[in-house]
Every structure is written in C-alpha cells, then in structure tokens.
C-alpha cells in the first residue's frame, strides 16, 4: 500500500469553474487521492475553484482570450508550463480532461504516461465551429489523439465517433462511465423545501430540468412544447441552473404567454401563480428534483450526463432527447443508436427517449411528440411510479464502488507499463 500511495498522479483541466466536466474532475481527484498522491493542474484560476477537492492545485498562470497571436503564445506557454511541472513532479500518469487540456497534455512531453478523458461528442458539439472548429476536427484531433497512451470515453457511443470520424486507433480507447455518489444524492434529495417552494409543487404537476442554461442544453424548444401542454392542463416547469442564455430563455417563455418567475430578477414573492420557474444555481439541486412529477432533458448533445443520472437517482421518470451521447446508454442500454433520428417516442427499459429538438424541418412535429408524451405521462400515475423505480434501480450500475475500480486498474496498468 505504501508504494501505491507514493505513486504520483497529475490531473489537468483548463479551469475549475462551473461545468459537468469540472464536477467529474473533482470526483476523480478525490477518489484517486485514496490510492495515489494527486496534484491538480489548471491553465489559470480566473474562475475560482468551485469544486475544491482538498488536493494540491497548481496554476500554470496562463490566461485565455486575446487575438490569434495571443492565443498561440498562451498555448505555447501552457505546453512549456506543464512540461516543467511534469519534470518537477515526476508523475507516473498525467490525465487530462477537456480538449484544450488534452492538446497540452499530448504536446508537453516529459515524465508520465498520457491519458485523455473525453467527456462528450466531438462530431455533434455545436460549439466546435468556424475556422478554429475546422482546425480542431480536421487537423488537431486526427493528428494528436493517437499520441495518447490511452483514451477514456465517458460513454460507449463516443468510441465509434473517434474511430470513424477522426481515425483514432481502437486499441487506445476504452469506456469508463461517470460515477455517481448515489447514497449522498438520495440523502440530499430528502431535504425539505421551504413553505413557498412546497406550495408551488403542491399546486400542479411539476416538470423539472436541471443544468446550465446554454446552447448545448437546448431548453428553448422545450418551452414551446411546454407552452402547448400548459394550454391543455395545469402544469409547471422548473429550471434549476443558470447560464448565459438566462435572458433569452425568460424572454422566450414570456413571448409564449407563460408567467415567469426568475430568481435573479427584482425580488418578487415565490408563489404558485407562475407557470415557469427559473430558480438559478442551487447548493442542493436534488431537493427540487425528488418531489417533481417527471424530469425533462432536451439536450442537443452530451457525454454521459450527470443531470440525467441525478434525476434518476432521485426516482424520477425521465424524458430525454435521444441525443449523442449518453441518454440511450443510460435509458435503453440493450439498444444501439438508430440509423435515422427518432421521430416518435421510444420506451426504453429505464425511461423515455424522444426526438431531438434541433432540426428546423421537423421541429414542429418533434415538439408535438414531446407535448403528447409529457401529457400521457402526467395522466398515468402508475407509469410514473414504474419508470421512477426503474430509473432508481438503473443508477445502481453507476455507483462509485462499481465504476471507479476501473480507473484504478487503468492507472495501475499505465504505471507498470
């Protein structure tokens, strides 16, 4: 055990700000520290450390932003800084999270085997666009990723993307799903709501979604489907999370005739009189999930979505887009992604898969499928209970105890190699 504890592991990520990858990075850091001496490295700490692990954090102190020349200079400084850190620490393994960190990991050289952790779809990420996006997809990933000693994907369906889309060698790839602190999430979900919050949940069935208010999460079209549902019956929609699209989403909801409560706007009492509730960031989001009727997840692309898994742990029936990647693996694991996009709801073993809300030509029809599926589920209490129980059972496959041993095994293999 003494030799294992002395083995040094270096973890790299661009920043420690808000995000699913940062949460996974934190979880990995904490768990690896049970076995190894872990040091975290970041490009800079400008966004703070929102998920402190207690392990040492080294900032390369290289900011982002600027023009093309500044970005190139910063890139070179990051590579040089990581090389120096590797020489000083002499780690057995260097594990990077997120693409920018992957490039720096691969190009820095120095001591330590190189492992990349890929958190999401590269082919379908709409943020990879423009000249830089073309460079990433057509030059950097194909040219550099095969330099890694191993590449871990958080979802099985990312592997064929990397092989067929970018020419990554299959032998370098393996999947280790994200893990969840199931007991901790269950405990936090039982925390009581305030009296005002409880009154909202008691007034009508509640659909809830959680996550950043961003392009990826694609909450805008969900509002249209919900508005049609609201015209038919009493129902409420709760958003837990914040992001750069907050103003766009509240404006869209009001344009649809929905009454909107937004926690960040001028103080107004929280009452059951609204249709849509934007609650913002919450220290304990799980207590807003458990008492809801169902969880809705309209993402355009994912990796292995933490928010979806957390809702399942809370015992909610879930309705998710069949987006790349993750939801199908979680909700219908015995099936493969269809050759053509879903146009109707699909009943998975552990939840409902629905059409993506991204194609203008079919958007109205796809939103109608969402509206009809939400209405059918709200009208079927036994089905709500059945799917909620199945969701909870499925998440036992992704406990820390079941998943993280795979990471330890990989690190041991790389260390010995």
Describe this structure in words.
The chain is of the alpha/beta class. The protein has 15 helices and 15 strands. Strands 10-11-9-8-12-13-15-14 form an eight-stranded mixed beta sheet, with helices on both faces. A seven-stranded parallel beta sheet has the order 3-2-1-4-5-6-7, with helices on both faces. The chain starts with a helix and ends with a helix. The mean pLDDT is 95.
Which superfamily, in CATH terms, is the homologous superfamily of the largest domain?
Glycogen Phosphorylase B
Major sheet characteristics: 8 strands, mixed
| Strand order within the widest beta sheet | 10-11-9-8-12-13-15-14
Structural shape? globular
Class derived from helix and strand content: alpha/beta
Order of helices and strands: HEHEEHEHEHEHEHHEHEHEEEHEHEEHHH
Named at the architecture level, the CATH assignment of the largest domain is 3-Layer(aba) Sandwich
Radius of gyration over all CA atoms, rounded: 22 Å
What proportion strand?
A: 5-15%
Number of strands: 15
* Tally of contiguous helical segments: 15
Instruction: Quickly count the domains.
Output: 2
Enzyme class: transferase
GO molecular function: glycosyltransferase activity
Pfam families: Glyco_trans_1_4, Glyco_transf_4
Domain Glycosyltransferase subfamily 4-like N-terminal: 19-181
